[in-house]
Amino acid sequence: MLTEMIYDLAAQMGVRLTKISFVEGEQLGCQDVSLLKIYVNDHVVSALIYRADIDGIAHHVNRDRLEVRLRSALSRLQLLLAP
Q1: Which one of 28, 36, 64, 82 is least enclosed by Cβ atoms within 10 Å?
Q2: What average pLDDT score do residues 9-36 get?
Q3: What local confidence, expressed as pLDDT, does residue 58 receive?
Q4: If you ran DSSP here, which 8-state letter would residue 32 be given?
Q5: DSSP H or E run through 81
Q6: Closest listed residue to residue 51, CA positions, set 28, 74, 67, 35
């Protein structure tokens, strides 16, 4: 569901993503946060995504905080892509 949300937001913002990857928080030494990486060709931005926000997507709870984080990351990616 999170991946679909990211692709939908990117499409709304006019960004064509090439890849999305996640690094689980346990690998980073943190239980409640994951690292999200969003790619367009050789450009990449990262965002920290909280487990509670990911869980909230399935229950349609607290989507706003997650959407703000995702839009912020996508905006940074747009800046990297600007001529």
Answers
A1: 82
A2: 92
A3: 78
A4: S
A5: helix 63-81
A6: 35
CA dihedral 40, 6, 14, 20 (to 10 degrees): 10
* Amino acid type, 34: S
Question: 36: helix, coil or strand?
Answer: strand
Least confident of 12-16, 45-49, 50-54: 50-54
Q: CA-to-CA distance for 22 and 34, rounded, in angstroms?
A: 7
d(CA 61, CA 65): 10
Cβ neighbour number for residue 49 with a 10 Å cutoff: 21
Amino acid at the residue 8? D
- The residues facing 22 across adjacent strands are 36
8 Å CB contact between 58 and 44: no
Report the run of H or E that residue 58 belongs to, with start and end: helix 51-59
